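[step 3/7] fold_predict: job queued, chain A
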Amino acid sequence: MASPQTLSEPQRRVVATWAADCAERVVAIFEAEAPADDRPRDAIARARAFARGELSAAEEIRRRFVAGRAAREVTSPAAVAAARSATQAAAVAHMGAHALGAAAYAAKAAGLAAPDRPQTVDDEIHWQLEHMSAEARSALRRLPPLGANAAGPLGPGLLASGILASIIRAIQADLARPDPPAPSS
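[step 4/7] structure written:
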């Protein structure tokens, strides 16, 4: 039986776009430290290609850790988080819950890159929620709450503690709110 964190392939393709959008906002943080390393940007491009149906889930499952190795090549915590955001975006092809990991690492990277602006993480979460399509919102609502299911990235591990957990909980709290009524014409 598949994990509830997997989502269907069509749902993963929808949330891959959002995950790539989140990661793309911070990839320059990584590139500032490692300008010749294109692995995170390539991971984001592959997430977008998967979203468009140009890559199969099997192809991406085999390649999803490539950008993660880039995180070991940089030293600043912000650059590491930016690379991990791209890794999580690419991993959406394998399991939809990685989209929340991409968003969490992106918000963390943004916050670490702007230590003098404590509002940065909240601003990034707000941007992420504002730029989430209705289809992505619907798909992400199907995921179990952080910590409720151990069979995937939302189980025990890096995403379930510290700032990453706080960010994911904030996103999931917003997802739990009912959508506003559609404007009447």
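[step 5/7] annotate
The CA atoms of residues 125 and 171 lie 7 Å apart.
The chain has a mean pLDDT of 92.
exit 0
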